Amino acid sequence: MWLIRRFADPCARILRADPEHVEAIADKFDASPIRTCGGVEGTLRATAAGWGLASPEIDALASSLSEPGVAEMLERLLCGAAKAFGSDKEREHVGLSFFDAMLAESHDRRNRSRTDD
Fold first, then answer.
1. Total Cβ atoms within 10 A of residue 2
2. Which of 18, 53, 98, 116 has a Cα-to-Cα distance from 10 of 20 to 30 A?
3. Domain residue limits at 43
4. What average pLDDT does the segment 54-70 reach?
5. For the chain, first and last CA: distance in Å?
6. Based on the number of CB atoms within 10 Å of its own CB, is 25 exposed (0-12), middle (13-18) or buried (19 or more)?
7. How many domains does the chain contain in total?
8. How far apart are CA 42 and CA 70, in angstroms?
């Protein structure tokens, strides 16, 4: 959702469905299906490629998510936010903010590694 909202369409309606119902729901609502694959990192890379949004910044973020424990911690934070905030709008705002922060951090890390070379 973050990738689509930030880089493709900030007003996109995101429909969630169980994996076995993704195609039927996408057909019913004339939507583009996005399947999760390989955890957060794999889904981010696959979605970026499928939507033509691949970039060094997105790749750096996906690489950060593949580091030991990072994706699991993000998942726990998102689950905690889902419990802590009552409305979908609040939960969405928090989730988008988490990914925005991670993108900024991975961008900074990428820039630091360039200057270290």
1. 19
2. 18
3. 2-116
4. 86
5. 34
6. middle
7. 1
8. 13
Euclidean distance between CA atoms 50 and 45, whole angstroms: 9
DSSP reduced 3-state for 106: helix
For residue 30, pLDDT over 80 is answered with yes
Looking up tokens 């990192």 gives 41
CA gap 112, 98 in Å, rounded: 21
15-16-21 Cα angle (round to 5): 110
Looking at residue 4, its amino acid is: I
* Mean pLDDT score across all residues of the chain: 83
- Prediction pTM value: 0.71
CB 61 within 8 A of CB 44: yes
